Amino acid sequence: xxxxxxxxxxxxxxxxxxxxxxxxxxxxxxxxxxxxxxxxxxxxxxxxxxxxxxxxxxxxxxxxxxxxxxxxxxxx
Length: 76
Fold this sequence. Notes:
Elements: H1 2-75
């Protein structure tokens, strides 16, 4: 019975050390991935705002054309 307990403890210690090493390796990757995701979110938000400005310009241009067309139709 003592051999089983010793073996289990040994395996658990090895697992703990392996997990610590794995965690050290992945912590840096996690931070890098989080930074990339944050940057992508900022880019998407920026493009969304830029898209709104572009759409507003198009909308203004269409409104001006509609006003001219309405004025021409009234002249008939």
